[in-house]
Amino acid sequence: MGERLGPPLSDPVFEDLTIIGIGLIGSSLARAIRKQNVARRIVIADSAPEALARAEALGLGDAYAADLPAAVVDADCVILCAPVGANAAIGRAIAPALKRGAIVSDVGSVKSAVIAELAPILPAHAHLVPAHPVAGTEQSGPDAGFATLFVNRWSILTPPDGADAGAVAKVRALWEAIGANVEVMGAAHHDLVLAITSHVPHLIAYNIVGTAADLEDVTQSEVMKFSAGGFRDFTRIAASDPTMWRDVFLHNKEAVLEMLGRFSEDLTALQRMIRRGDGDGLFELFARTRAIRLGIVAQGQETAAPDFGRRGPDSGSPAG
Amino acid sequence: MGERLGPPLSDPVFEDLTIIGIGLIGSSLARAIRKQNVARRIVIADSAPEALARAEALGLGDAYAADLPAAVVDADCVILCAPVGANAAIGRAIAPALKRGAIVSDVGSVKSAVIAELAPILPAHAHLVPAHPVAGTEQSGPDAGFATLFVNRWSILTPPDGADAGAVAKVRALWEAIGANVEVMGAAHHDLVLAITSHVPHLIAYNIVGTAADLEDVTQSEVMKFSAGGFRDFTRIAASDPTMWRDVFLHNKEAVLEMLGRFSEDLTALQRMIRRGDGDGLFELFARTRAIRLGIVAQGQETAAPDFGRRGPDSGSPAG
Lengths: 320, 320
Prior knowledge:
Two copies of one chain form a homodimer.
Chain A: E1 14-20, H1 24-35, E2 39-45, H2 49-58, E3 63-65, H3 68-72, E4 77-80, H4 87-94, E5 103-106, H5 112-118, E6 127-128, E7 131-133, E8 154-157, H6 165-177, E9 181-184, H7 187-213, H8 220-225, H9 231-237, H10 242-251, H11 253-276, H12 279-288, H13 290-298
Parallel strand pairs in A: 1-2, 1-4, 2-3, 4-5, 5-6, 8-9
Antiparallel strand pairs in A: 7-8
C-alpha cells in the first residue's frame, strides 16, 4: 500500500504537546508528530516506569514525566493514549494543572463513554476534542509504533455539542499533517459504526481462538499446524492488547451487544441453511460478500495483493 | 515467509498425470509438478472452456482435454481439483476409462464425503488416495495459481482402510517434492480438525461481512472506510470462491454444525460477560489467545511481521 508522509509543516500546530500513554498508538503519534513538525515540544508521560524509560531510550519526546500534573502544565494540547478505562483517573489528575484554553484529546476506540467521563471532570476553560484514529497493528508498547501508521487511515473526531471550532480545527490539522483522513461525526454514531467494523470483529476473533484452544477432540498442535486454512487470520487481531480491548467492551456495551445480536441472528440463519442443505442460500451470501472487499481495496484501506501480501511480492502472480 | 522450492526430482514419480479442474489449486499444482519434475507429462482437463483455454495459453500442461475419459486414459495418477460437489460426476465419467492400477487423488477440503462418494464409483483396480493441501489464497482461476503455494504448508492424506501402501507412498512423494509437509490421518478426524481451523472461520467471516452489508443505520461506505479497525481482515476469506465453499458446507455438515455449536456457546458466554461488565473474564480470554498465534508463528505457518506484513518491510519497526 506504500504509505508515505508528505512534507513536514513549516509552522507547528502546537507549541507544547503532551502524550499520556506511550504504547503502539502514543508512540506512533510521537514519532509522526516529531517527523511532521506538528509540535515544537513533545512531553511524554506514562504510569509504567519501564515504558517511560523505553520512550526516553528511543528518543520519542523532548521531556519525560511520571507525574501527570507536571507533564501537562505547559501543554497547549494533551492527548490521552492510555486504555479508555484509565481516562477518568487521568482526567482527574490533570484537570487542576491544565493551562487556560488547553485542548484535551484522546485516541480511544469508544467515544460516548469517553465524553461522558471526561467532560464533567475537565475545567470549563479546556477544550475537549475526542479523536479515534482507525489504525493499528496487533503489537503493543513503545517499540511497536511507527511514524506512518496513520497515513491513509481515517481519524474520526467526535467533538461534543458546542465544541470550540478553533480547537477542532487544530486537532484536525494535527491528524492531517501526519497523513490521516479526517471525518467528523457524533459520538453515538461513531460507537455504532466501530462496533461493527472493529469491536465485534475483535470479539469473534478472540472467541474462535478461545473455542479452538479449548477443544478436547482436536489438539492445540493440530489447530496450529492446519491454521493456514483460515484460522490463522483470526489469531492476528486476537493477539491485540487485552487491557485495551477489555476496556473497549466495557465502555461500548450497548452498541456491541446490538451488533453482536445481529451477527448471531445471521449466523443462526446460516446454520439452518447448512442443516437443511440449502446450497442456493449459501451460494447467494458467499457470492455477494466479495464486493465489499473490492470496495475496501478500491478505497485504499486494504492491499490488493493475495493473502495480504503475506508471502512477499513474488507470490500470487502467474509467473510465480 | 520466504517459501522456496528445493531442487527438482531427478526421476519423476509419475509418467502421466492428469489434473481435472484448473483453478487456484489445480493450476498451482500443475506449475509445481512441472517445476519439480514430479510427472513426465501433465494433462489438464476442465469443464469450463475458458479455463482450459487459459491454462493452454499459460502453458500449464502438455495436453488439454475437455473430454474426461480421453484426459485420463493414459494417466498413472489423476488429481481431482474441482469443487467437491463435482467429484461424484467426475468419478462416474472417468471410472470406465481409468488405466489398471491408476491412482485417483483429490485436493478437496472435506474427506469423508469424498471417500463415501468416490470409493463405490471407482473400479476395484484403481487406488483412491484422497489428499487435502491446507493452502490457498482468496483468489480463483488458472491465473491465480503459483508454484510455491504448497511450500511449508501441510498436505493431509486420508487413505481409506486397506489402501495400497505403494500408492500412498507415491502421493506422499508428490506432495513432498513440491515442498509440502505430509500428515496422514483418518477422514473423520480430518473433517473435525478442518471444521475448526478452516470451515467455521470461513463461515463466520462470510457471516460478519453479510451482517455489515445489511445494516440500515451504518452505510456500506462507512463499513469500507473504517474497516482498518479489524473488519477488513475478515473480508479476505469472505472473498473466497463461493462454489467451492458452498460445497464444503454441504459436504461437511455434521462436523461444521458441531464446531459452530461450540463457537456459539462460547460467544454467548462472552456476550453475558459484556452485559454484566465482567472485565476480569474478558481479560482472561483476551490474554490467553495470544499464545496460539505465537505457536502458529513458531511453527512457520504465519508471518511474524505486524499486520501480516501488509505495509511492506519498513513498517512496524521502531525506526519507521
